[in-house]
Design goal:
- It contains ten helices and ten strands.
- It has two domains: 1-34 and 82-123 and 169-247, Rossmann fold; 36-80 and 125-162, SIR2/SIRT2 'Small Domain' (2-Layer Sandwich).
- The chain is of the alpha/beta class.
- Helix 6 runs parallel beside helix 10 (235-246).
- The chain is elongated, with a radius of gyration of 19 Å.
- A seven-stranded parallel β-sheet has the order 1-10-9-8-2-3-4, sandwiched between helices. A three-stranded antiparallel β-sheet has the order 6-5-7.
- The chain binds ligand BV8.
- Residues 26-29, 31-32, 37-39, 55, 105-107, 123, 162-169, 191-193, 195-198, 216-219, 221, 234-236 line the site of ligand BV8.
């Protein structure tokens, strides 16, 4: 494991030789787009709340308006955000390597807006809305003063189409991600603290499958010790560098 902010030649060589690259991203890749990471202290009105306490069905049942307002605040932030050079570099890398599977824990849709294809969104999409009782996915709903609004189909409360703590991940997305982690030649873990499961187990599946593994993160994480390459820096700075040396 060599921890450095320059890109080792062996890593470039490894990427050139890889038939299948799998990538797992976390909130860190969106930090340079101005989207606060999941564990950074929340700002303003939300400073006193722990995201992990709010992103649960229990919190929603207990105080649906509070949770709905939190997501409205985050949606407004994300609406103003743009994909950054890190997102864009991954979209370009997919055109260079034979096969790239992009798996994200992020719910901000920035990989999709950076034109990455077939993004595996393990935790859903904050910009999508469904109802709490039956999961009716809705593009629109009747104007109402109710906060949260009600589902026009079954009248239950509306919520963001994200996976909350204690909820199962979408089965097909998780299965596809596990298959990629077990089959890839190279696994990049980018901008994740590797604390949330089952996503955090994907890099370790890649280690078990004998893939070469890379961590891109300014900080150490529980994954660091298992990684073949550790690039200590930000996604927005290191991924464009990696792409330039790949070309
Ligand atoms: C599940 C959507 C089966 C919502 C998210 C008790 C009861 C129930 C479950 C559990 C339990 N105990 C444990 C669990 C499992 C639980 C879990 O993992 N808990 C942990 C925290 C202990 N998991 C679940 O509940 C999952 N479901 O297991 O179902 C089940 C069902 C019932 C009962 C048991 C099991 C569901 C997990 C999904 C939760 N939803 N998001 C929303 O967003 O509102 S997860 C949330 O955290 C975000 O999606 C985020 O992406 C994710 C992970 O965080 P990170 O992405 O890593 O972000 P973080 O801020 O932590 O770190 C940022 C990193 O970036 C840092 O390392 C930083 O250094 C780095 N960085 C910063 N700047 C940059 C950078 N890197 C690069 N460049 C930069 N510029």
């Amino acid at each position: 494991m060599n921890s450095q902010t320059e890109i080792p030649k062996e890593l470039i060589q490894t990427i050139h030789e890889a038939d299948h690259v799998a990538v797992l991203t976390g909130a860190g890749i969106s930090a340079e787009s101005g989207v606060p990471t999941f564990r950074e202290a929340q700002t303003g009105l939300w400073a006193k709340y722990d995201p992990q306490e709010l992103a649960t069905p229990q919190a929603f049942r207990r105080n649906p308006k509070l949770v709905w307002d939190w997501y409205s605040w985050r949606r407004a932030l994300i609406h103003k955000a743009e994909p950054n050079p890190g997102h864009l570099a991954l979209a370009e890398m997919a055109k260079i390597v034979p096969k790239l599977t992009l798996i994200t824990q992020n719910v901000d849709g920035l990989h999709q807006r950076a034109s990455s294809q077939d993004v595996i969104a393990l935790h859903g999409n904050i910009m999508e809305t469904k109802c709490f009782a039956n999961g009716h996915l809705l593009d629109s709903w009747p104007e109402s003063d109710d906060v949260p609004p009600h589902c026009p189909i079954c009248n239950s409360l509306l919520r963001p189409n994200v996976v909350w703590f204690g909820e199962n991940l979408p089965a097909y997305a998780l299965q596809t991600a596990v298959q990629a982690a077990q089959a890839c030649d190279l696994f990049l873990s980018i901008g994740t603290s590797a604390l949330v499961h089952p996503a955090a187990s994907l890099p370790l599946m890649a280690v078990e499958n004998g893939a070469a593994t890379v961590e891109i993160n300014p900080q150490e994480t529980p994954l660091t010790r298992w990684m073949d390459f550790v690039l200590r820096g930000t996604a927005g700075e290191l991924l464009p560098k990696l792409l330039t040396q790949l070309r």
